[in-house]
Amino acid sequence: MNAPQIWSNWSGYVTARPQRFETPGTVEALQEIVKSAPGPIRVVGSGHSFTPLVPSDGTILSLDHIEGLVTHDDENCRATVRAGTKLGNLTRILDGVGQALANMGDIDKQSIGGALGTATHGTGSTLGAYHTLLQHMELIDGHGEKRVFTLEADGEMMNALGVSLGAFGIVSAVTLNNLPTYRMRKRRWVLPIGDMIANFHSMMTAHRSAEFYFVPYSGHAMFLASDITDEPVTSRPLEDDEDGLKTLKLARNLLKWFPWLRRRLISDAMRKLPREDYVENWLKVYTSDRQTRFNEMEYHLPVEEGPKALAEIIELTEKRFPEVYFPMEVRTVAADEIWLSPFYKRQTCSIAIHHDAAEDPIAFQRAAEPIFRRYGGRPHWGKMHTLTGADFAKLYPRWKDAMEVRRMLDPDGRFVSPYIKRLIEA
Question: Which CATH number fits domain 69-180: 3.90.180.10, 3.30.420.10, 3.90.550.10, 3.30.465.10?
Answer without folding.
Answer: 3.30.465.10
